[in-house]
């Protein structure tokens, strides 16, 4: 069997006595889309912040591609090919879509970001930037300032800038949060397109999105793993249903919980 691309053992984060994440053992297999779900306050985003080192764990270990990365910093994690998005779209609003993606591509040229280089050097990255925008469905928005894009298209642009870093693994923090149905459908289609050759770990509240996209689901509640498996397995787990719906009825999550 393949080894996990990302693995945690006993991952724990305490804040002044409050245990936000408690002893989480997680295994994400290469080439899969793996979801972290759970009710509000379950510890999902804290877990993401621990995995990408925006928070340091109180205890436990994190391994990426067999390497212990527990003590590394966020920039070091990104250079290893483990790259994340955030709940709030993080693009430069007054740069065009093309300029946003090109800025991400400039990382490969070293630490200077080419601020003092000629415009011709920067334009050499334009073809790749356009291709990345086309990949995420933004072919008509190369020259559009990011501030004028709809929320869903801003998220697509953020994913394009993330792909510019050539990640082996993407961590998507609530990629469809606050979107219209049209934008949700667009992002779901985008995630399907970009999964080839990559591993994706996502936090997502929209369970219909999780059902349609994800190979494996880990359910968190109160900072601990409650259940794990495919959607059919976890959606029929009475403890999972109780955690989401406040009931002990052994009903499937599909339907009501899809709107939680």
Total DSSP E strands: 10
How far from one another are the termini?
35 Å
CATH architecture, please? 3-Layer(aba) Sandwich
On the 0-100 scale, what is the average pLDDT? 86
> What's the number of structural domains?
1
Q: CATH superfamily name?
A: P-loop containing nucleotide triphosphate hydrolases
- Helix-strand topology string: EEEHEEHEHHHHEHEHEEHH
The dominant shape is globular
Please tell me how large the radius of gyration is: 19 Å
User: Biggest sheet, in brief?
Assistant: 6 strands, mixed
Please report the first level of CATH classification, the CATH class: Alpha Beta
Percent of residues in helices comes to 25-40%
Characterise this structure.
Helix content is 33%, strand content 23%. Strand 4 and strand 5 form a beta hairpin. The protein is globular and about 50 Å long. The strands form two sheets. It has a six-stranded mixed β-sheet, with helices on both faces. The protein is built from ten helices and ten strands. The chain is an alpha/beta fold. The protein has one domain: 3-Layer(aba) Sandwich (Rossmann fold), CATH 3.40.50.
What are the defining features of this structure?
single chain, Rossmann fold, 4-stranded antiparallel β-sheet, alpha/beta, 260 residues, globular
Quick summary of this structure?
About 35% of the residues lie in helices and about 25% in strands.
